[in-house]
């Protein structure tokens, strides 16, 4: 579809989800009411490490209202996948185990007629655990003589491998900036807790769960439970935020489904208030030893990152994936002679880490962009000039980064120049220290080519399917296995389909992830791929449908299909006024199987697959202006600017929302958020999140370099906001406080930390 | 698939539906429990004909628990289709009307929080109807000066047209047997009453209803309610018998859906015990003046049927369809020089008539086969010999019947000879009179070619779709828009798919009619088409899937696809032991999008359409042995034999069940069943059905002449049992009581009728 024919793509159409969500008609898991549902409570370990010697459930089983208690014996052999750490490492972990390795690990499930009865009975379960030493923190875990989580490994290092040039930036260069950076362990915090309502009728296990990837959940539930795949149905509901936390299959899902199968009836479970911080995967928590080498002219010569990530108690199904992405995306938008990384994933007695918006990219952007600012400071050059001097040229595409990525499009310098023009700094004299920080990134989006995923060891493909159906009245339904968790995919896919089919936007309905209803989506709505990859499938399916309409109309109007165009609910002969036929007329005829040219199948429903031939590289440049109160260490973000390029925008208002939300999450990481563990392995119950009060005004400018890869020219944007924002804030604070700039390396940059560091330096 | 490769097709696999149904886990509409459902009662006319002057619902509206009352004003403009009677006749009728024309016609709907409150409030509705004359019976309706249902027509004859040779059998022939026959008005009696649970959430109207045709219901509900088609979802449930009664869209469905839309919530309704006889469509009720002309040698020269059918108060969506089918199928398995018919449909102030197993074919078989027996009696020849002498030759195919039908296959004489060999008569001396009667028929099945349906004025096509999906573990799901109402379609489609895909039967799951989940089925499970047409679609889709598996396996094994075969869960190279790959391996690879040959789409799901190029003609020969007690007129059926040929049998046990059930319904028509009206238009509340006690042993022999039309060689069989059974029983009674043979013309042949007729004759 040429740009001039587009009516809906590019417009800020109101999100169709909002009427439902705002008026309380959202369909969330916990709102599902199945008559006769039992309620489950997952009993979790309160010790970080130990061997389960016994689990006496007799009292619980005898308690009023209890219908079932599930222990490790009942779930023997049920496993979920670990992201591959290497040939000597387990590929799966048990959903209930004889050894506990983190506070929050499931130990047993109590099922009762009411939630209260289940909670009361759970308190009666008597678990006897022989304690083993806690292992908290990378240094502890890697220290000689450290207690081992898996003694058979003889180390806590789960995986260790180089990528790119292992020697990068170790050779002689004029300037080498070498520092250690860390983004703290954080917890993705969707508004909606995780939840499951599972029902089994003896034939089908029907699972409603707040997931980003219903088919992924289905596939793994079937294997874990030993059910045929065609006996498991997983329905996504409205998902109240995912951010990566809901792309995983958790032991909880398997256990609640097991309870439903045993009960032959519905069982419901929702994350308890205390569960989330301990039992939902954490993220980030990686230490990067970064080395940036520059020549005398400030040209970037080499970059190397020694990445050590905390996997937690075992590899989640994301495994060391975020660490690898940190490594391969380390060059960002810049040119280096050589780039390299070492990747290590370490197990500790903490909650496993997994996916979170950005997936390794905020971490390495923090490292790279802080290194660049530090280099500029040391060289006495403007950090924006230093960046511009080293940026990849927009005209040289595709360009290989030296880390296995081939950037296809994007004008990074133009973005940064636009950003510099946008930034306005204030001049208030209030005793606070002010600074402006910049950060640039290239974002890997649109996971991804299935063959690349195979090469990278994933257990799923990266394509998307769509079925587009035009009903007899020319109303249109789009079916996709993707899910909506706030990103407006119902609206944007409708915009895409409406343009291709020449129908009003409100005639298009979008049906999202339900494994019984929608086509296969191997990995669902993750990795900034929903619109770019799923939209590609919708365009392909809608185009096939349009071609079929043209074929039928050409037969009817006795013209060539190439003479036809579609718009305003009609197919018409280009340039011949009045020579047209209504879509509803064609559609009725097609569904009746009447008046069709030879060989044309009745009906108007087309399925198409889109498997992107490459990743889609978006880019962004962020700037933050901060004011730091030296008396308290408090940081206020006074201004925030984004120039983002994620290719063609289907709905600019939705993209703005994605960027704003992501930036606020990045600010949260930079200033507030951290899951902390005591040395003896107990997680803190305290977690500080930014609110609307902490969210600055965010000015956004869009550049639109169309993707040469996707049919609609779109790229992913879901994670963009989070990737540069920690670094932009960190660089701004470093700019405001140059005397402690070399201490701005680890998040969160709390008032306490800044105040103490300033005080120490001034002492 | 060649016969020798078939493992499941042809085997009497146990019906997979039965475990669910027998253990009380059937999913019937009335078992659907949606929280907060309101209950609806449809208030119906108690007068047969009149003008509604007023309908005071204020008291009802004010009654406790009442949430809504719907009257004609609220449903203004909502209509359902009439089967076309001709250019001057209405194409639609209103769901609520200002004129009532039958007892049972809906007048208003009361919706309340409980069923009791709705019933109580319905009694408070005050309807003022100005009475008009009742018009009951064809003679009354067609008499000069009759009261008119539609004065603008100036007649009660809704349609009147000739088919074939209007002069057939009026020319001079050696022998002409001319008699008037009638099958009484009967009511299809499924075990499960009709019911609807409708829910509207502001976006989607979700309708659960016991229907044979969910898409058909969806299409017509959308039009009636003015909703976009893509906003209406209709789910079939387990349907407890259909028999044609549940192929229609009734005003009740529209009204309950309207109530749900108005309420923005769930509303439930079930046929009240008194509703069924008045508010569910009746059937048969046609009078045939038949003329059979023979030459001196007993050769059939000509056949003419003057068919007058009682349409009831208006044409149902079946319209005059059963009358037309009577006419076109009048030749049966015999050769005539000329055949013709006149078809008239007449309106009366009675419940409209519609579809019922056989759809016009039991009626005309009664006429033709009684005529033949009467001719044999008059000519003094054996009725079986007379039939054999006039049967179409098996080798002469296709053969045109002179009534627009082209029979493609079937050896009718072989069937009748086999039947004659089967029949064993008893020789008990108990004062009862004994006789054996035969009947032969050809059955039109597998409706139908979409272009023929267009030509015949249907508003839908006759194709079927299937989606067949093989999951990563090689479990298979078949999706079809057809429904199961007892005919075992879940089992037989699974057998078909299992053979095509080389998987165990229990690895195949069949998902039936749900407009949100299953592909489009224009007219659903009617007209003996589910397996023949739907199975054709399944074979096409499964074949495409198998071809794809072969393509992938050939790439993997480096052989040509033509060298491969599929069985036992593997694809293997023909004649090369060990050269094979497991289906689950291929399927996993396909769903991941890995290792696929160029141009092969990821995934393993194929949709196919099958639009049969012609009707499929099954055939049957039935014999009944009866004993009639002359003292009481009581008839006992002492033996019953069927030779049936419906092509390739997928599941002989299921076909036996279909035949047995149909025969018992035919016996019910012959001996017991009648909806009778008083002259003033009030229906009798009494309806006599056969039970297991009245069901004889039924011996069945199958001939299997494969259909040259369908991919699996199957033909339809769902209606076969009902078509010849009334005539076989009638002929047996006539044979037992030759002195009143010429009075055996109208059903039901009750003891009272037989006793009186015998007594009159002997007087």
From TrEMBL, chains A, B:
What UniProt keywords are attached to this protein's entry? Molybdenum, Oxidoreductase
Positions of the region Disordered? Answer: 703-722
Alphabetized Pfam families for the sequence = Ald_Xan_dh_C, MoCoBD_1, MoCoBD_2
Q: What is its EC number?
A: 1.2.7.4
- Provide the Aldehyde oxidase/xanthine dehydrogenase a/b hammerhead domain boundaries: 23-133
UniProt xrefs under SUPFAM superfamilies: CO dehydrogenase molybdoprotein N-domain-like (SSF54665), Molybdenum cofactor-binding domain (SSF56003)
Lineage: superkingdom: Bacteria
One Gene Ontology MF term: iron ion binding
| Protein known as | Carbon-monoxide dehydrogenase large subunit
């Amino acid at each position: 579809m040429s740009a001039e024919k587009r009516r809906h793509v590019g417009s800020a159409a109101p999100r169709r989800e909002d009427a439902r969500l705002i008026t309380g008609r959202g369909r969330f898991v916990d709102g599902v009411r199945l008559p006769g549902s039992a309620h489950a409570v997952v009993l979790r370990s309160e010790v970080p490490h130990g061997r389960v010697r016994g689990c006496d459930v007799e009292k619980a089983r005898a308690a009023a209202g209890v219908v079932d208690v599930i222990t490790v014996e009942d779930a023997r052999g049920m496993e979920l996948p670990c992201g591959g750490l290497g040939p000597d490492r387990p590929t799966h972990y048990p959903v209930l185990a004889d050894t506990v390795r983190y506070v929050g690990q499931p130990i047993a499930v109590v099922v009762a007629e009411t939630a209260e009865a289940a909670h009361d009975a759970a308190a009666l379960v008597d678990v006897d655990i022989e304690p083993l030493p806690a292992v908290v923190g990378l240094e502890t875990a890697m220290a000689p003589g450290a207690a081992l989580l898996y003694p058979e490994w003889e180390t806590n290092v789960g995986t260790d491998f180089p990528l790119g040039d292992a020697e990068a930036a170790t050779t002689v260069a004029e300037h080498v900036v070498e520092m250690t950076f860390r983004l703290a362990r954080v917890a993705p915090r969707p508004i909606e807790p995780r939840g499951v309502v599972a029902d089994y009728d003896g034939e089908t296990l029907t699972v409603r769960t707040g997931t980003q990837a219903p088919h992924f959940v289905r596939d793994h539930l079937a294997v874990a439970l030993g059910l045929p795949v065609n006996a498991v149905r997983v329905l996504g509901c409205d998902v109240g935020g995912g951010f990566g936390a809901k792309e995983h299959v958790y032991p909880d899902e398997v256990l609640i489904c097991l309870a439903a199968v045993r009960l032959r009836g519905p069982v419901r479970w929702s994350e308890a208030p205390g569960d989330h911080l301990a039992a939902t995967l954490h993220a980030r928590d990686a230490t990067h030893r970064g080395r940036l080498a520059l020549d005398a002219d400030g040209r970037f010569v080499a970059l190397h990152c020694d990445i050590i990530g905390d996997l937690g108690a075992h590899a989640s199904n994301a495994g060391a994936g975020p660490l690898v992405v940190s490594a391969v995306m380390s060059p960002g938008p810049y040119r280096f002679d050589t780039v390299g990384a070492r990747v290590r994933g370490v197990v500790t007695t903490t909650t496993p880490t997994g996916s979170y918006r950005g997936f390794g990219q905020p971490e390495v952007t923090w490292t790279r962009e802080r290194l660049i600012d530090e280099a500029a400071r040391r060289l006495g050059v403007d950090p924006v000039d230093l960046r511009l001097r080293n940026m990849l040229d927009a005209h040289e595409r595709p360009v290989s980064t030296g880390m296995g990525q081939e950037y296809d499009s994007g004008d990074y310098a133009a973005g940064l120049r636009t950003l510099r023009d946008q930034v306005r700094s204030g001049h208030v004299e209030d005793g606070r220290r002010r600074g402006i920080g910049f950060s640039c990134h290239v974002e890997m989006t649109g996971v991804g080519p299935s063959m690349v995923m195979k090469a990278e060891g994933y257990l799923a493909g990266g394509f998307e399917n769509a079925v587009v159906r035009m009903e007899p009245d020319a109303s249109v339904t789009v079916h996709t296995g993707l899910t909506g968790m706030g990103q407006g995919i119902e609206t944007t896919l409708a915009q895409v389909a409406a343009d291709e089919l020449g129908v009003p936007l409100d005639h298009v309905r979008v049906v999202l992830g339900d494994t019984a209803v929608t086509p296969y989506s191997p990995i669902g709505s993750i990795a900034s791929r929903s619109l770019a990859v799923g939209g590609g499938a919708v365009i392909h399916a809608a185009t096939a449908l349009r071609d079929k309409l043209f074929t039928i109309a050409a037969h009817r109007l006795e013209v060539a299909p190439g003479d036809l165009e579609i718009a305003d609910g009609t197919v018409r002969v280009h340039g011949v006024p009045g020579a047209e036929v209504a879509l509803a007329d064609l559609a009725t005829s097609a569904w009746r199987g009447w008046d069709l040219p030879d060989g044309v199948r009745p009906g108007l429903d087309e399925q198409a697959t889109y498997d992107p031939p490459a990743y889609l590289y978006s880019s962004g440049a962020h700037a933050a202006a901060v004011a730091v109160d030296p008396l308290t260490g408090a940081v206020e973000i006074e201004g925030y600017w984004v120039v983002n390029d994620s290719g063609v925008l289907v709905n600019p208002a939705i993209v703005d929302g994605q960027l704003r939300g992501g930036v606020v999450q990045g600010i949260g990481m930079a200033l507030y958020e951290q899951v902390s563990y005591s040395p003896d392995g107990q997680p803190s119950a305290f977690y500080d999140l930014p609110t609307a009060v902490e969210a600055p005004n965010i000015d956004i400018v869009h550049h639109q370099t169309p993707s040469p890869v996707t049919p609609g020219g779109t790229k992913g944007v879901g994670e963009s906001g989070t990737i540069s924002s920690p670094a932009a804030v960190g660089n701004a604070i470093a700019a405001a406080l140059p005397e402690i700039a070399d201490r701005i390396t680890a998040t969160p940059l709390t008032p306490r930390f800044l105040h103490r560091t300033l005080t120490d330096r001034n002492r």
